[in-house]
Structure formats: structure tokens, C-alpha cells
Amino acid sequence: MRVNELYVADPDKDSGGKIEVNLNISLPNLSCDVVGLDIQDEMGRHEVGHIDNSMKLPLNNGQGCRFEGQFSINKVPGNFHVSTHSATAQPDNPDMTHVINKLTFGEIIEVRNVQGAFNALAGTDKLSSNALASHDYVLKIVPTVYEDLKEKQRFSYQYTVAQKEYVAYSHTGRIIPAIWFRYDLSPITVKYIERQQPLYRFITTICAIIGGTFTVAGIIDSCIFTASEAWKKIQLGKIH
């Protein structure tokens, strides 16, 4: 049996105010030489070309790139985006069509009967989009706790998402496109609690099943008896 709870609190106070992020995204028409990850938030962080715990794998004979990165974000509103901003020379027409293979926050809770949006953007395909468009993914990150039968807790994050794409211009011309992941944290925590079914409830259920079985059996027996008596009367009528 699983009990779900909602409450307002930061369940993972030992995280140091950080959330681990795993991003895996494929850009089949943009070279790895110009692909980079930038991170910004309201605490003043502004990192262009993040490279720690990340790798870029060429696709399509070097014409494309798959970016895989593991990094942390602060528990404040902010964004991280895949762009060409860190490239030494900007390409003329960077193509931001892409497929998101994975985007998760914290540990994924893989437990039977726990259905959550831990990897909500997995499989998102924007290959048919305008090649010059920017993409905005607006995420609401929801803290999540799973407590097993031994009361051991695991912490993770689900998220909801809204998205749009657009070609942006300024007074100097078209703005370089990027793939933006803008995030904020929900104040509400979701908690899944595993609980064993109490013995009395099990006994009550069994008794209900047995009682129902006897009731149905009684109805069937009554129907058979009534039909049998009616048949006997019909047979007696034929004899007389």
C-alpha cells in the first residue's frame, strides 16, 4: 500500500542547496566545436561554456553533436541553455533542431507503482522545427520523497514543463538562437510512503470475500432449488 502526501518544506536539507542535473541532448546539425552549456541563476551565477563532467560526441560524420553533462544548480530560479555563446567563432546560421534524450534532476526513483514525471522531456523531438528558432522549456521542479517500508528516504525531483519556440530579433538583427531550460522550484513537496496493509484490514477483506462467496452461492442454490421444484410440478402435471 502506498500513501501520498503533500507538504511545504525542503526535504533534502543535506544537499547544500544544490540539485544535481543530468542532461543528454542531440543536435544533429550543429558541430561539437561550437556547442556549449551556459548556466545562470538569481544568486549571480553566470557560467559560459561549462565543461566539468560533460562530453561532446560527434554525430553524422562530425556535422552534429550529442552533448552529455552532469552539473549542479542552486535551489533558486535560473536557467541553463545549450548554445554557441562559448564558441570562439560564431557560425553563420546555427541550427538548434534537437532531440532531448534525457533531462533529470537528482536521483530517479524507480519503484513499482510510483509513476512520476522524473524525465518528462525524454524523447522530445524538435528535428522538424525552424532551424533558426530558439526553444524555451519552462520547468517547475517539484521536490519528491520516497519512504520505503523500513522508513528509509530517497530524495528526487519531478518536473512539469511548458514549451515554445521562436525566432528572436533585436534592433541589430536576428538574435543567436539557443535551447533554454528556465526553471523554478515548487514550494510543495510530494511524498510517497510505502506501508504494509494492517492485519485487521487483511482479515476484513478475506471475510468480505468469503461472505460474498456464500451470498452468491446461496442465491445460485435458491435459483436451482426453485427451478427444480417448478420442473417437478411440471412433470407431475404431465403424469396426471
From TrEMBL:
Membrane topology value: Multi-pass membrane protein
Domain annotation Endoplasmic reticulum vesicle transporter C-terminal: ranges: 60-221
Keywords: Endoplasmic reticulum, ER-Golgi transport, Golgi apparatus, Membrane, Transmembrane, Transmembrane helix, Transport
Keyword Glycosyltransferase in record: no
Domain of life per record: Eukaryota
Transmembrane segments: 199-220
Keyword Transmembrane: yes
Subcellular location: Endoplasmic reticulum membrane; Endoplasmic reticulum-Golgi intermediate compartment membrane; Golgi apparatus membrane
Any one GO CC term of the record: endoplasmic reticulum-Golgi intermediate compartment membrane
Pfam families on file: COPIIcoated_ERV, ERGIC_N
Protein's GO biological process: endoplasmic reticulum to Golgi vesicle-mediated transport; retrograde vesicle-mediated transport, Golgi to endoplasmic reticulum
Stated family: Belongs to the ERGIC family.
Role played: Plays a role in transport between endoplasmic reticulum and Golgi.
Listed name of the protein: Endoplasmic reticulum-Golgi intermediate compartment protein
